[in-house]
TrEMBL record:
Gene name of the encoded protein: liaS_3
Protein name in UniProt: histidine kinase
Catalyses which reaction(s): ATP + protein L-histidine = ADP + protein N-phospho-L-histidine
GO molecular function: protein histidine kinase activity
Natural source organism: bioreactor metagenome
UniProt domain Histidine kinase: residue ranges: 1-85
Length: 86
């Protein structure tokens, strides 16, 4: 989450950002971070803008990452984090 927020501040030009955290079931948490910034071309999604760091940190949590962005229309990063009960 920290890297996503840093990217919004440094690169997006966003006026508004939103964080949502919810649990659609008892085995998964979903974190959605979105902004109304300039967006970017996702074809090079693993490079630049700290995106590789986002993927690395998600891997530590065994989480899935989806990045949805359109130039001029903002960006949304969705992390699906499995919840492991002990």
């Amino acid at each position: 989450m920290q890297e996503c927020l840093t990217n919004i501040i440094k690169h997006s030009g966003a006026k508004k950002a939103q964080i949502e955290i919810f649990a659609p079931n008892d085995r998964l948490y979903v974190v959605s971070i979105s902004d109304d910034g300039m967006g970017f071309d996702t074809s090079g999604v693993n490079s630049g803008f700290g995106l590789s760091t986002i993927h690395e940190r998600a891997a530590i949590l065994n989480a899935k990452v989806r990045i949805i962005s359109r130039e001029g229309r903002g960006t949304r990063v969705i992390l699906e984090v499995p919840y492991e009960q002990n």
